[in-house]
Structures
1.
Amino acid sequence: MKEGNRPIGLLDSGVGGLTVAREIALSLPEEELVYYGDTLHLPYGPRTREEVRGFVFKIIDFLIEEKRAKTIVLACNTATAFTLEEARRRYPVPVFGTLDGACKKAVRESRNQKIGVIGTEGTINSQAYQRALLELDERLQVFATACPRFVELVEEGNFAGREVFDTANRYLDGLKGAGIDVLILGCTHFPYLIPVIRRVMGDKVTLINPAVEMAGEVKKWLKQEGLARQNGSHQEQISQQEFLISDMKRISKTFLEKGSKFLKLPSLNFTEKNIFEGEEDDS
Ligand code: DGL
């Protein structure tokens, strides 16, 4: 197989990273994607760095060794916050994370230098976003809030309605009060909730979805390295997307119905592939 015709490997704890898969599929429709959602260990947010590190490296090993991924996209902020630096040293292929592009964009967009970040407890407590933003501009005021319930709502396929709106109001009230003009959606599950988040935050606050920046970074890299997929034979022209998950029981029917509509991916058929079998079940 030509080097460039190997797939792009993506991973997340569940269906959140599909928001990144969508942006990559839109911007690079010819590329083959292999997505791994670790529903067996969802949510990653409340877990320790060590636990998340173990799961993430196991998935990357699988994507590189068995799927021959030409690059890895950490389509998960918690995984990025906990493992990006080490993963970049550890693997022979480039590893993309959620943080860098989103932070640069947030700094460019903000007029009043008050930036909000929402994410899982793991991401927010790691201070990864806060540090990355302040490194770009030390005059910034950064306001960060963990929103773990958002992850559950999305996994349940619950993207709108009273409960989502009330939860969003509760989580985002402090950020509104702080007068931020940019809000980073620092969890790949959150873009499903953009309509509700926008309603709560109002039109004057710019929402940053890191997936958009990530797709741009991957595209640039493929071009630079000459590793874009070459459409040669008829067989090669049909790009594929493979969606694997570690536990099928944890995918909700409602998510499948609403998620595929939201994601506009050509197909959203999950296959169960438990690469953790035989390991102690600590989920
Ligand atoms: N979607 C993930 C993130 O971006 C993780 C959500 C979770 O498993 O807690 O952080």
Note: The pocket of D-glutamic acid is lined by residues 12-13, 16, 42-45, 76-78, 119-120, 123, 151, 187-189 (CB under 6 Å).
2.
Amino acid sequence: MINRLSVTQKLVLSFVFVIIVGSILLSLPISHYANSPETSYLDHLFNTVSMVCVTGLSVVPVSKAYNGLGQILSMLLMQTGGLGLVSLIAFSTYTLKNKLGLSDQDLLQSALSRDNQKDLKAYLAEAKQDNKKIGFVPTMGALHNGHLSLVQHCVKNNDVCVVSVFVNPTQFNDKHDLETYPRTLEADCVLLESAGCDYVFAPSVEEMYPEPDTRTFDLGTVSEVMEGAKRPGHFNGVAQVVSKLFYIVEPDNAYFGEKDFQQIAVIRAMVKQLDIPVKINDCPILREADGLALSSRNVRLTPEQRQKAPLIARTLKESANFAPEKSVQEVIDYVINTINADPVMRVEYYEIVDGNTMESIKNWSDTTYPVGCITVYCGEVRLIDNIKY
Ligand code: PAF
């Protein structure tokens, strides 16, 4: 039967075979890479093409001396030899990449992400010249659906969406927290691209702070209570980095998640003080099905802690059911005692404040905008959440 095929048919048959086998070989590392972003896809690619190269070394010329299966095999070897050439190119790229000291991250992200202000400003200058509306989402990476919902708001309401990914050292008052903060830039870029982000700005610490930022902000109560009191210097660091980012991007709109409720008030105060012409947009908290507020820190929870953590949101929600009938203090006591009853959890603070000024209230009549803000240690992991009463 094979003998009855024409040379062209045999050529096509062997070509199809090479394509199928090649695709399978190349797709295996792709799916592996997707599941473990820390593994280098280029390394897999290199291994695969090297394998093909070795197979294709024995190029056999198509000759009349070969018939039937022999002819198909010789064509097959010729084609794998062709793929061997491709592998040679991949090998050169790989060597060059190592010689230049580029990470896979640099290569994979080159289409979407840049790490220097100059490129970003050049990109934005064009957009601004065309009167395009610039939206901006500052993040510290390790993105989850909460961040992506900010990006969606940004994409929907602006012509250009810029996202920054920068783990800002000046806002960490705990060295261990800074060191262990999850960093997943490759995976972040994949998510951002699919969410419609136009530009990822992922600067180095040197790019953002060529010299130490010595500015000290005096933003009043909004930055002094709760997180401000528990994490000295934290909001000053946030104000430093966000103001720097605003000066670089000059966005029309910026988007922040309400999980960091107090942070939004601090940023509003900073923008007002520095007279930066940007509209601050707050976006609702995104939650897991069991109520746990989405946070980059959730990945640090052990399975047992992860199971316990929804107690925070559940308790806040329950408290809202009877809040108006009980005094402010009774509601606070209920929340703290219920959560602390679980040995894995420790409430650091729970305060009910005016949602604009962050000042604690004693009576419900003290404000028209009461918000309960909580921080809980679930094991070693510090989780925050809030509820509007
Ligand atoms: O909320 C955050 O992720 C950070 O505090 C921010 C606003 C990106 C500043 O580093």
Note: The radius of gyration is 28 Å.
